[in-house]
Q: What sequence folds into this?
């Protein structure tokens, strides 16, 4: 299943259902220290490839999760997903750092929100991840609260902002 998202400066962005082989790319993306720092709430040991692949392989078959791979110029540029926790829909995305600042996350999220119409939907972001906050705001999410949690990538408790789209 493929969805053409949009052209940005002659660059076609495509979303497609995530395949098991894509997880190898996602694993490499999350090893980027700067990206992990901004994401903050990562796996306990991001270098444990076996644990990573086991976890996400299981999630591929979960009917409550919509995992999509973001393709830019025929290259895997990231992932975007809708999942549910205690009946509430949430979104998450990860963009390879070489694609940051190009509008790709915003375009991919707008397309995901067309495909996944359950509302309300939440997005959570580290308090200092300004880029991700802007993505959510451009997609009409509104900041509705805060929470604190242990951020594995920072080895400390930090504040996260909670955004909501109704």
A:
């Amino acid at each position: 299943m493929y969805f053409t998202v949009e052209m940005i400066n002659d660059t076609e962005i495509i979303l497609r259902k995530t395949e098991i082989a894509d997880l190898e790319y996602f694993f490499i993306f999350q090893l980027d220290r700067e990206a992990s720092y901004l994401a903050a709430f990562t796996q306990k040991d991001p270098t444990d490839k076996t644990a990573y692949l086991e976890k996400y392989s299981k999630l591929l078959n979960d009917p409550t999760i919509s995992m999509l791979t973001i393709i830019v110029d025929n290259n895997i540029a990231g992932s975007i997903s809708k999942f549910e926790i205690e009946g509430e829909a949430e979104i998450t995305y990860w963009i390879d750092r070489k694609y940051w600042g190009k509008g790709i996350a915003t375009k991919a999220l707008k397309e995901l929100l067309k495909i996944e119409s359950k509302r309300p939907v939440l997005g959570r972001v580290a308090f200092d991840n300004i880029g991700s906050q802007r993505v959510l705001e451009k997609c009409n999410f509104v900041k509705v609260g805060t929470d604190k949690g242990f951020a594995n990538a920072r080895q400390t408790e930090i504040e996260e902002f909670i955004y909501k789209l109704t």
